[in-house]
Amino acid sequence: MSAPEDRNKVELKEIEALEQQEANAMLGADTSTLQTLWADDMTVNSTANMIAGKKLLLEMVENGQLKLRVYERRPVRIALFGDLVVSTGNEISQLIGRTLPEFKLFTSYMNVWTKRDGNWQLLARHVGLIHREKSESPQ
Amino acid sequence: MGGMHDDEESKGPKILVVEDDEDAREAMVALLQMKGYHAVPAGNGREALDYLDQASAPDLIILDLWMPVMDGWHFRSEQIKNPRLAHIPVIVVTALSDRADVDANEVIIKPVDVDRLLTTVDQYCRREPTS
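ok -> structure tokens follow
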């Protein structure tokens, strides 16, 4: 395997780990990790058809408006384009208490990561709804 | 109504959110509540009119157009016909790109840019934008 291919392999492994780290930080409402992983100019388009940025989303996590009971992420394809990486996959999530009964959301996502000052950061994210179902055991 | 209660004791300007999509409705209500508004959800135009018939008038209505039971166009025509409700400003949120079809104070295209929505809401509720 050539040196560039080795480098790409390492980068993709790193992104795969960051994808899980970011998902775990969301689940744990770990805003200090999210602050580091999210680019300041990050844009997110959610299943609610609302476009929000880093500041507001961090505020929602801190205030408990974006608190997750379940959050699982499964990347299907991760592709490297120089200093950009596009990761596509599916997720299962369940927000705590925003609706009663709570709903489990099955979604597809596309995350765009960018390398800035040697560190990968999440720059853009789009989430599309695949299926929504009532959770049987919300508590 | 829309899975949530209306607490008339809540502080802040009152905003009626009329949206059939549960994700969008609850996300918008949560966002507005976080920003200090008293947000009340309704799942369609009929639910919204029933609410307005019984409760004090809100300061603002955020209205989707494509909804079951009673859509946003029908709701708006009923609202305008009612002297008690006609003065309430309406922000329409829609995926429609033809704004000429919409009778509203403001039209915001979906997906909704939250920063723009909050700025517009603040204008109609006569508050300084919250940071």
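Chain A touches chain B at residues 45-53, 56, 59-60, 63, 65, 98-100, 103, 105, 129, 132 (CB under 8 Å).
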